[in-house]
Amino acid sequence: MKNVQTFLDKSAISISLLCIAHCLLLPIAVTIIPVLSVLPLQDELFHKLLVIAILPTSLIRLVIGCRKHKRWRIASYGIFGVAVVIVAALFGHDLVGEFGEKLLTLIGSLFIVGGHIQNYRLCRQAGCH
User: Fold this and answer.
1) CA 67 to CA 43: how far, in whole Å?
2) How many domains does the chain have?
3) For residue range 37-71, what is the model confidence (pLDDT) as tens digits?
4) What is the largest distance, in Å, between two alpha-carbon atoms of the chain?
């Protein structure tokens, strides 16, 4: 069980960091490396797939960790981040434009990463693992 919990924390952090890198680096990479423009990385489906990957890993791990260390505020950071990323992926482009969508995604991803890092540290201290 310890390995699964650690894997879920690290997976959620990695996926959220992938979102951040995608938002910040993809426009630069497409300009510098034109072959990237033919990949479906800017497609809305890619964004939705990232959300589908973030949702279960984040929610499951945050709830498991917080049930053990009892610091539910940590879960609220991650859940808020997941909600922001979902709104950005589903409605961001229509509501706030492309820049706003990226900004919302970055903010949400940072909340997810922060929540998971705190959750991971608290679980190590409390012996949750």
Assistant:
1) 37
2) 1
3) 555 555 667 777 778 888 888 888 888 888 888 88
4) 49
pTM of the model: 0.72
Cα angle 121, 122, 126; round to 5: 125
Render pLDDT for 80-101 as a digit per residue (tens, 0 to 9). Answer: 999 998 898 888 878 888 888 8
The tokens describing 120, both together, are 């991971």
How many Cβ atoms are within 10 Å of 71's Cβ, its own excluded?
15
Domain with 21, as residue range(s), is 2-126
Task: State how far the Cα of 71 lies from the Cα of 94, in Å rounded to an integer.
Answer: 36
Instruction: Give CA–CA dist 61/107, Å, rounded.
Output: 20
